[in-house]
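Run log // design_07
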């Protein structure tokens, strides 16, 4: 059995400051950007995330990258 993995979508999310809990813990909401080219190098995606964060008028947290693939099996030798 061979397993195929076919990348379907890539989504970038940036954590954006959303306030502080009474305990003092910072909370974030996520702003997502879809439609990223499937063959885009991760370094380029990070550079875009940093550029977006630099123009936002708020504190940002982590940059998150989600990749969704379709997997299937084929008969093998």
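design_07 sequence
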């Amino acid at each position: 059995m061979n397993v195929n993995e076919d990348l379907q979508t890539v989504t970038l999310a940036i954590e954006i400051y959303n306030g502080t809990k009474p305990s003092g813990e910072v909370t974030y909401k996520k702003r997502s950007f879809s439609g990223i080219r499937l063959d885009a190098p991760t370094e380029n995606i990070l550079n875009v995330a940093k550029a977006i964060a630099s123009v936002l008028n708020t504190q940002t947290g982590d940059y998150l990258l989600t990749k969704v693939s379709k997997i299937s099996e084929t008969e093998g030798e």
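The radius of gyration is 17 Å.
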